[in-house]
Amino acid sequence: MQRAATILTQLETCLSAAPEALARRLGVGVRTVATEVAALNQTLGRAGSVRLADGRYRLLVVDAEAFREIRDRITGEQESFNDPDSRSAFILAKLTRSDAPIRTEELAVEMSVGRSTVTGDIAQLRDLLADTGVSIEGRPHVGLQLRGTELAIRTLLLHHAYHAAYDNFLIGAELEKAFNDTADDFRFEDGLRVNLFRWLTVMLDRVVNGHLLLEMPDTYSDIQGTHAHDYALALAARIAPLIDEYIPAAEIVFLALPAAGRRTPNTPDLLAAPTGHLDVDALVEAIFGRIRNTMNVGFDVEPSELVVEFSHHVAYMINRLRYSLHVERTVDEGELTARFPVAARMAEVAREVIAEETGLMMDSAELALAATYFQVFLEDHIARQHKPFNVAILTGQGPGAARLIRAQLSKLLPPDTVYALLSLSSDLPQLAAADLVVTTPGSQLRLDVPTLELSEVFDRGELIRKLSAMKFVNHGPLALSGESGSMLVSLLDDERFVQLPPDTSYMAGLSLLVERLGALGMINNEFRAALAEREALGPMQINTEVAFPHASALGLQGVACAMGVIPRGDTQDGLRIIFLMAVPLKADYDDRILLRVYDEIIRLSQDPLLVRKVSRLNSYIQFFYLMEDYTEATIQGRH
User: Fold this and answer.
1) Main-chain dihedrals φ then ψ at residue 195, nearest 5 degrees
2) Nearest to 253 by CA among 183, 319, 193
3) CA distance 415 to 399
4) For residues 392 and 438, is the Cβ–Cβ distance under 8 A?
5) CB neighbour list of residue 507: distance below 8 Å, 6 or more residues apart
6) CB 549 within 8 A of CB 540
7) CA angle 415-583-475, nearest 5°?
8) Helix-then-strand count for the chain, H and E
9) Are 178 and 235 in contact (CB under 8 A)?
10) What does the alpha-carbon distance between residue 141 and residue 121 come to, in Å, rounded to a whole number?
């Protein structure tokens, strides 16, 4: 029932999940997920069901009490020997904690399963150990043993078999008090204490049974002199008399590792980053600098609380990478990338910089954790750059009609939009301050300000499309807070949608698009120079099929875009779409538009079928309707 438990946990914590995300989580195909969901629904019976709607699975609970009982039974079975992962953890724990060879028959008896099942579990366990430096040696009928370095064996125990090995292991009241007193002295938070206690338990068990850790890799020497090492020294001084054992320096470093690689504390007085030879502040500046240079999205690296916290996160992450520690996977990386594509791309840039500067490579869990920080940066950046949107509502039908229109608009426009309810007869001079004027039908006003005529009842979807297509002097294209149409469509027209010759190269296609914008008088030489400078850093391609060249320059009157499509057959590889974007310098425009385009371009690039369809279009009108249909389907899928 392991898969059923995983599906339930995912749906309860994420509220919905795509079949592909569950497949990645379970390590199976989408068809297998459908089979598992069908079996789970039979188990749930009348208590609830898992349903596929708009491309996502959702959990519906009818009888909460009955569902809770079934869920507890399912998750309980996950920990039993019916689950192959539980059996593998049990076998690993037995092999690790036994000094004598263990026969497969003994393992089969203890788990009440057949020998063939144990043989299959050991084969899977060998795959798990392939890159760890630890191996299973011996013959099944004679006995199996674990071979490897002490540090590698302990790492395996902690990551894959801790509960199987130590759930019923007690270290004693005196040792537990020594640990708690030391953790109190260093004011460690509860979440960290749980992990520190696990490492202490493993260390005590191994030391008392004669498996001392006498040496550590040279790369671990930087931990000496840090706050984490001070903790380990203090703890070792307390526990050494209690176990009557000399604790070698390598064991003290081992105790320090989980403190050095902790998740960033969330209490201000605990935000003391680990020290070391690496200049973390310089590394963070290099990360943000690379993001500015490659994505043209700039954050202000100033000593704000958020930047300081991110610097601490990077410092602890470097320690985790250096000491081969792992963070627990709390989110599905594929789901995170789909939800926050720009932040995920920023995390990829950070991984490149960290690999270049330190030689360390972030794994997918660290990448996802970094992406969550970048999404927070984006939200903070947008909030600080945001200019309130001013709407004037004019009606001759009384304040009730105006308030009804405002109530409906407030569901679509940003929360901090400023509304002015004006009279057609006396308040017309105040319209100069408005970004948008909304009037009731029949007003027949001709204004220099963007204007909409709306009745008290109007179609929400059509209004979204109209607003997305409108241009606002102080805001550029309006990035609505609600679901809206394609930003790419709103930034183009028939003259700037270009069907390029087949097999056009990236540079040739980019040159043709630059010429088109130049001929339309929408770019200047400063932009051409800025684009060339950015291209010198490397082609601005999202992937092999989609490119997004863009740059900022002085003197541009507004955002200017052109799109080139390169028709290719479905089986042909190569570039299919080039979206060129020219934007004024940051002080002259709202760069939320760039972020919205980046988001949509990345999402487009992740849909190979849509990319192929776009590449075969030959007019802006076709692109308009294709993206209209796609956006509508996407909105329905999200709901």
Assistant:
1) -70, -45
2) 319
3) 21
4) yes
5) none
6) yes
7) 25
8) 26, 16
9) yes
10) 15
Question: Each residue of 386-433: pLDDT tens digit?
Answer: 677 888 888 776 777 788 888 878 777 777 788 888 876 666 667 777
Which DSSP letter does residue 136 get?
A: E
Q: What are phi and psi of 583, to 5 degrees?
A: -130, 150
Tokens (6 digits) for 166: 């130590």
Axis-axis angle for helices 2-14, 64-78 (nearest 10):
130
**CA quadruple 514, 516, 519, 520: dihedral positive or negative?**
negative
Token digits of residue 45: 């019976």
Tens digit of pLDDT for each residue in 198-225? 999 999 999 988 899 988 888 888 888 8
Burial class (CB in 10 A: 0-12, 13-18, 19+), 211: middle
Q: What residue has token string 């059996």?
A: 87
Angle of CA points 349, 511, 470, to nearest 5°: 75
**Amino acid type, 466:** K
Contact 376, 309 (CB under 8 A): no
- 557 vs 167, 296, 521, 590, CA distance in Å? 67, 18, 10, 13
- DSSP H or E segment with residue 147: strand 143-147
Three-state SS for 62-109 is: CCHHHHHHHHHHHHHHHCCCCCHHHHHHHHHHHHHHCCCCECHHHHHH
In whole angstroms, what is the distance from residue 620 CA to residue 624 CA?
Answer: 6
The C-alpha atoms of residue 488 and residue 475 are separated, in whole angstroms, by: 16
CA distances, 152 to each of 132, 155, 222 (Å): 7, 5, 19
Mean pLDDT computed over 449-467: 72
The yes-or-no verdict on residue 561 having pLDDT over 90 is: yes
Residue 167, both tokens: 């759930």
What residue type is assigned to position 341 of the chain? P
Nearest to 344 by CA among 382, 310, 371, 372: 371
Least Cα distance to 178 among 153, 143, 203 occurs for: 203
CB 337 within 8 A of CB 344: yes
